[in-house]
Amino acid sequence: MSQQQPVTIVMIEDDEGHARLIEKNIRRAGISNEIRHFTDGGTALQFLYHAEEGPMLNGPALILLDLNLPDMSGTDILANIKSDERLKRTPVVVLTTTDDKVEIQRCYDLGCNVYITKPVDYENFAQAIRQLGLFLSVIQVPEIQVGA
After folding, report:
1. pLDDT tens-place string over residues 44-102
2. Cβ-count burial of 34 within 10 angstroms (0-12 exposed, 13-18 middle, 19+ buried)?
């Protein structure tokens, strides 16, 4: 029986304030998994596909994805992940300020697992992330077939 490998949380979020708030409230929910933070899509994709400790080479991950990034669209990152045979089962939680119905449908069509609109005010945002943390504490993440 193989031992369950800890899931790395990959946060792709260019707003440092939001990133700190997300990490703080995930920790408050009792999640101690490693969180890798990237502020742009290119660096995040590099990590996902090529880093020794990244999910392609080293096992399970869960991705928190902002759609509005400086160098590329979050939907492009989502499409990239979900079209890759080895990463397509990696859960992707879209966490963004966009509540456009077309964008939401597009993300689900591309394979996102959860779409959360960031509340504008701090208290509701913090509460939403704590609830996300509780959600993260109970979901199961599939193993990635390393080197498949």
Report:
1. 999 999 999 899 888 889 999 999 999 999 999 999 999 999 999 999 999 988 889 99
2. exposed
